[in-house]
Design brief:
The protein has 132 residues and is of the alpha+beta class. The protein has a single domain, classed as Nucleoside Triphosphate Pyrophosphohydrolase. The chain is built from two helices and seven strands, in the order ββββαβββα. Strands 1, 2, 3, 4, 5, 6 and 7 form a seven-stranded mixed beta sheet that branches. Strand 1 and strand 2 (19-25) form a beta hairpin. It starts with 5 loop residues before the first strand and ends in a 5-residue tail after the last helix. The structure holds 8-OXO-2'-deoxyguanosine-5'-triphosphate (8DG). Keywords: DNA damage, DNA repair, DNA replication, Hydrolase, Magnesium, Metal-binding, Mutator protein.
Length: 132
């Protein structure tokens, strides 16, 4: 029996004007599921560098990574995921969709109006207090 596959994921809760940016996966098995921009950390890469790279690639947006909001461990059928969610400040650029089919700045009142990844829900509750 081999070790179960493990992936390291970073995601960014990008904040601007009391709202957070959520995006809807445009393709693949989880198309239609909402998430924070991000992705797998590459070998030798820091979380911060991976996050800045992924957010730039996916949304064309520049962010400053502020702090770790929380960590989630989740078993997907194909692998075990360890995801670190960071609070990021929006610096520049309007989000341009490339891999996502939709995206919105969500405030406290509409934070739960989109279908997030189940794995994200605990961290989303934690995020509520950041949205004022
Ligand atoms: N980016 C992101 N991924 C999330 C979130 N919540 C969550 O469970 N995930 C999962 C979905 C994927 O299994 C994994 C992210 O990996 P990824 O973005 O490289 O997605 P992927 O494996 O579909 O991409 P790829 O190999 O095709 O590039 O983390 C989230 O909020 N943001």
């Amino acid at each position: 029996m081999g070790e179960r596959k493990h992936i390291d994921v970073v995601a960014g809760a990008i904040l601007r004007g009391g709202k957070v940016y959520g995006a809807c996966r445009g393709y693949g098995a989880y198309a239609g599921t909402w998430e924070f921009a991000g992705g797998k950390v590459e070998k030798g890469e820091t979380d911060e560098a991976a996050l800045v790279r992924e957010i730039r690639e996916e949304l064309g947006v520049e962010v400053a990574v502020e702090r770790l909001l929380g960590i989630v461990d989740h078993d997907y059928p194909e692998y075990h995921m360890n995801m670190r969610l960071y609070i990021c400040r929006h610096i520049a650029g309007e989000p341009q969709l490339s891999v996502h089919s939709a995206g919105r700045w969500l405030g406290r009142a509409d934070l739960y109006s989109v279908p997030w990844f189940e794995a994200d829900m605990e961290l989303i509750r934690k995020l509520e207090s950041e949205l004022v």
